[in-house]
Amino acid sequence: MNELNTVVASAQADFNQAGTPADLENAKASYLGKSGRITELMKGLAALPVDQKKSQGAAINLAKQAIEAALNARRQALADEQLQVQLEAEALDVTLPGRQRGQGGLHPVSITMERIEAIFGSMGFEVAQGPEIETDWFNFTALNTPEDHPARSMHDTFYVEGGSATAPNLLRTHTSPMQIRHAVQHVKKHRAAVGDGGDGLFSGTMPEIRVIAPGRTYRVDSDATHSPMFHQCEGLWVGENVSFKDLKFVFTDFCRIFFESSDLMLRFRPSFFPFTEPSAEIDIQFQSGPLSGRWLEVAGSGQVHPNVVRNMGLDPERFIGFAFGMGPDRLTMLRYGVSDLRLFFDGDIRFLSQFQ
Ligand code: PHE
């Protein structure tokens, strides 16, 4: 009996000594293996007298069970230890900020452009794009802009190579050249479609011209509210019976939708543009919010001048319409309450990411 207790104690000690699963299996062999101590004791039973066989056999079995229990406990302990080591090795700090792939987004002015296109699109306006390097004809002459107009001076306009000595090419100073470009195409397409081969001014029936032309424009100008590159969006609606009343209606509707405000006032302030007659600056006034009460200029506008209607290839006795040119940069500043235009073009991600 004493001997069995010693064997069990020795097995427990050996198992606890084993530092790895392999060591443990080796230690197991010397007790439970083919010539292990328990196995040998079992074999020795054969030589015992019958009365002792039974009690000694039961005692050996108990010892064997105790050794197996010690073995399993140590196996489990070793497995736990190993798991613990592995967990520590692969430890990860879930409080560290994740590594993200930066997600881009639209520039605030582009967001405005998309809004403008969507709103005018819902009113049946097409969207047209045109060149930023313009000819003297489209930027000035076709728009009834006289030789001595200040916009034609080197101080106000960026001239580039190309064109003629008396009429050099330039970076367009406004999107108004698109009035002519788009209308001329519209008339040409319509004439081809109806088999009209004439090349004089068109005075037949024709679907209305209803278009906006957003894009970049350039002037020699730079301060908190002017940048040498800025954006404009032209609007043009020409038909047989389009009046100033339609301009008021369309532009008022646009502003109220754009600024999501129904108590917004518009003012058409008499002004002058060579290509419209009469002409008006359009001012808006918010009735609430930080800018409330102030009149803010957002667009130039007017009824298309008959000379311009002629340069579109249309008979001004039959066709009439209005045009406007607004500043999407200005609209963006007003919508988001930004006071310095240059922030939009500095490319500072801390500023730009606020609009996402
Ligand atoms: N092109 C004018 C400007 O840049 C704005 C305008 C457009 C005025 C259309 C009347 C009609 O100031």
Structure description:
By secondary structure, the chain is an alpha+beta fold. It has two domains: 2-89; 108-355, BirA Bifunctional Protein, domain 2. Helices cover 41% and strands 20% of the residues. It contains eleven helices and ten strands. It has helices at residues 2-17, 21-32, 37-44, 50-89, 108-122, 136-139, 177-193, 244-258, 306-311, 328-336, 349-352, and strands at residues 126-127, 133-134, 159-163, 168-171, 209-218, 229-239, 264-273, 276-286, 296-304, 320-326. A seven-stranded mixed β-sheet has the order 1-5-6-10-9-8-7, sandwiched between helices. A hairpin with a 4-residue loop joins strand 3 (159-163) and strand 4 (168-171). It is rod-shaped and about 140 Å long. The protein starts with a helix and ends with a helix. The protein binds phenylalanine. Phenylalanine (PHE) binds at residues 174, 176, 273, 276, 279, 300-302, 323-325. Phenylalanine (PHE) is lined by residues 174, 176, 273, 276, 279, 300-302, 323-325.
Summarize the structure.
The chain has 356 residues and is of the alpha+beta class. It is built from 11 helices and 10 strands. Helices cover 41% and strands 20% of the residues.
Key phrases:
single chain, 356 residues, alpha+beta, BirA Bifunctional Protein, domain 2, 2 domains, seven-stranded mixed sheet, three-stranded antiparallel sheet, 20% strand, rod-shaped, binds phenylalanine
Order of helices and strands: HHHHHEEHEEHEEHEEEHEHH
Unique bound compounds: phenylalanine
Proportion of residues in β-strands = 15-25%
Helix content: 40-55%
Cα-to-Cα separation, first versus last residue? 82 Å
Structural class: alpha+beta
| Order of the strands making up the biggest sheet | 1-5-6-10-9-8-7
